[in-house]
Amino acid sequence: MPKAKAQKSAEHFAGISKIAYEGPQSTNPLAFKHYNADEKVGGKTMAEHLRFSIAYWHAFRGAGSDPFGPGTIVRKWESSSKDPVSVAKVRMDAAFEFYQKIGAPFWCFHDRDIAPEGATLAQSNKNLDAIVAHAKQLQKATGVKLLWGTANLFSNPRYMCGASTNPDAHVFAYAAAQVKKALEVTQELGGENYVFWGGREGYETLLNTDLKREQDHLAAFLGMAVDYAKKIGFKGQFLIEPKPKEPTKHQYDFDCATCIGFLRSYGLHKHFKFNIETNHATLAGHTFQHEIEVAGSAGMLGSIDANTGDLLLGWDTDQFNTDVKELTLAMMSILKFGGLGSGGFNFDAKLRRPSIDLADLFHAHIGGMDAYAHALKLAHRINSEGVFSKKVAARYASYDSGYGRDIEKGKASFESLEKLVLGQLGEPTPVSGKQEYLENLLNTELFR
After folding, report:
1. What is the pLDDT, as a whole number, of residue 7?
2. Statement: residue 409 has pLDDT above 80
């Protein structure tokens, strides 16, 4: 008998080829204008600098729903079977086809994004194992890697009052078991990082909250994760993703500065870095660049969730960021701190509710990838020429020698400084910060 031919998997994005780089003059909407993966910027390729990743939860589980209405985005693969595990496999086939065609080297997921939750933890784990095995095959076939994995500890009603900060120890235990499994499958897929986002690790009212006890429990939970990672030999970087509010009124991972203080107070700071999200920075009352600077200054800059919010709306809208000016400032700081290491730029961004075509998913990611690539080139040039770094250095030059250096080295005292002021120094002479000049200079650099 002749051998049966292997069945070719269905093409989910028929009519769309692999997205190519065509340069700034191209008018092709399905082509990159700035992102050229192999182009070198400062000795590294754009692909090495940017390490783009696709967020599975938005790109392949997002249905266009919002608080005022159900989903508008319908994908054929969602009705491919009545068995949810079979649907999950077909959905993942579509995802990896997209990763290849958009040219993203990485992807990210929550455990419950990729596999349906069962009636019990054992069933959920069984479902997850089946999909992880499928993902492992697809990674091997395509070369796409896992940037990071994480556990969804916020959607199920059991987590309505938090996971590790829940007042019920039973919920804490369930969350620990879920993260244990998520760490194992992240390791199985070669994940380079593991993210903790405290979606409901916070409170709605202090009338029913023991704040100190909840923070102690959160620290204990993170410590258990560190211990288990060592036990199984997981070498990936642990990342915390700060967010100030929403869905809770106040989240314990409010911003990078808050998390740094928390981690240091519990002796956990050596084990964690930060996955910084642009939209979360905005909700905390900060700029994207500010959060990068805070994390980078502490040696804890790890990865980026690449999105933005709408400043006219008060919630987390998770839009694709195409603001080249904002991204250039961010890239200037990221490059200054030496890049993201094992992290990358994960598109934690979703299509707008009326954007329902398959091609819209490509347009959105092309725009985001081009904006970051353009910003990378601008930031590298600005940093290399020292346009702003020289001016910053000159502004702080008084600390480079003499009594200024003594202050930074811990060799000065109130008494020694008082003596100097009463003697040779006298009254300080104010020096302009030249903010308006520098803002004009930035615009000049962006458009030259």
Report:
1. 45
2. yes
Examine the residue annotation and report whether 110 is marked as an active-site residue of this protein: yes
Q: Which of 93, 111, 113, 348 is catalytic?
A: 113
111 in catalytic set: no
Question: Can you say whether the dihedral through the CA atoms of 355, 110, 261, 272 is positive or negative?
Answer: negative
| Average confidence (pLDDT) over 103-124 | 98
Query: CA–CA separation, 83 vs 115, rounded Å?
Result: 12
Residue 4: its pLDDT value, please?
Answer: 42
Give the DSSP letter of residue 9. Answer: P
Is residue 186 within 8 Å of 133, Cβ to Cβ?
A: no
CB 289 within 8 A of CB 328: no
Catalytic residue among 12, 58, 110, 380: 110
> Per-residue pLDDT tens for 380-404?
999 999 999 999 999 999 999 999 9
Structure tokens at 263: 């981690």
What's the token pair of residue 155? 């959607």
Question: 358-385 vs 435-447: helix axis angle to the nearest 10?
Answer: 120
Q: What residues does 275 pair with on adjacent strands? A: 303
* 292 touches 277 (CB < 8 A): no
Question: In whole angstroms, what separates CA 46 from the centre of its chain?
Answer: 18
